[in-house]
Write a structure and sequence with these properties.
mainly alpha, three-stranded antiparallel sheet, 12% strand
């Protein structure tokens, strides 16, 4: 198993982005786990028993570090953004509904969840479904901007890739036009066949 070791102060999402030059969902997930490792929230597994299927949900619960301004100032801008996105108010409200269904047979866990939900300290992973993706483009932009500022990349790799693809397409069109011009002026069809 891979264990994260900081490389020159790079976060896991930065390392993943360097490896394949794009921000993938596994880079975002690694950053979520990294923020939990840093102690901004805990991740608790909640087993859900269904007929012949053992499914689980996960709860993200804020810790005291989450509200400590000194510690939050030490985070990179995309990490701070990710923290805010995880505990966005509409995700917390959706977690209330899901927690009531999840803990309807366990009053103790429901009371604990209500206590945290009232303070906006509790989010269920299932509440992030169809909500979390809305902030991913901003996360990508912030991460690419940070990596550009740190001189790891010279611009957004996705834009650089698109620019080079555009240049390649233009060169292909120009080459095809040159071949057509050559064939029509010399009646030599060899280059066209090639």
């Amino acid at each position: 198993p891979l264990v994260y070791h900081p490389i020159n102060g790079l976060s896991p999402s930065e390392v993943g982005t360097i490896i394949d030059e794009r921000v993938d969902i596994h880079d975002v997930v690694s950053e979520i786990v990294e923020l939990a490792r840093l102690g901004f929230y805990t991740i608790a597994k909640i087993p859900k028993e269904k007929f012949l299927v053992d499914k689980s949900d996960y709860a993200f619960v804020k810790t005291d570090k989450f509200t400590d301004p000194k510690l939050n100032d030490g985070l990179k801008d995309y990490q701070s953004y990710l923290l805010r996105e995880l505990f966005r108010s509409n995700v917390v409200h959706k977690s209330v509904e899901l927690a009531e269904k999840l803990f309807k047979k366990d009053d103790k866990k429901m009371d604990e969840a209500r206590h945290h939900l009232a303070k906006h300290e509790y989010v269920l992973l299932s509440a992030l479904v169809n909500e979390f993706y809305k902030g991913l483009s901003v996360f990508k932009t912030k991460l690419y901007s940070r990596m550009n500022d740190e001189a790891i990349f010279s611009g957004n790799p996705e834009k650089v890739r698109c620019n080079w693809l555009g240049i390649f397409v233009l060169m292909e069109i120009a080459a095809f036009a040159a071949i057509i011009f050559f064939v029509t002026s010399t009646y030599n069809f060899g280059p066209l066949i090639l």
